[in-house]
Design goal:
Length: 201
Amino acid sequence: MFITLHRFNANFKTQVASFNLKLGSMVFGSETFKYHLDAAFFNEIGQSEVRGSDVDATVTVDRKREDYFELKIECSGTLVIACDRCLDDLEHEVETTYEIGVKLSGTDYDDSRDELLIIPESWRELDVAPLVRDTVLLTIPMTHVHAHGECNREMESLLSDHAAEGLNDAAGSETAPEQDENVEGNVDPRWAALLKLKENN
């Protein structure tokens, strides 16, 4: 099981539970929930970029009114993702906070606003796993590469060779008919060489 949650109240009782927070039974004031997130958490719904994870998350729920809650999600730790340049593991530091209001209203679910989530009045629980997951994943930049000099040198060398071949091909035949880059096995032969090297390492 990839979730460990500690719920703290005035009596400092600790219990293991899920990400389904029982909003309907919460008292006025704040309650805090702590989680440890591993790679399985990020890949449970669908394959993500995450290869490894050591991230702690804290969700603080403050019930302001009968129908309104304020959530604060704080996440810190490290993700392991692939370097876009050499495909080796790359550590990505996570240190982020996200705050959102949750309102019980009507019968419709509405998440169209970043700062407010509206859920049906009939809901007694709220699954905060998607909010926690997105809070962490949105910290990953569009391009993620190792610092200069830290990439796998063999992979960098192969990339440089293939980049040069591509330039030579373009210069030598500007009018050549367009070819399907997907060849045998639906893999570009240039990337096939990189993937083969990666598998052998």
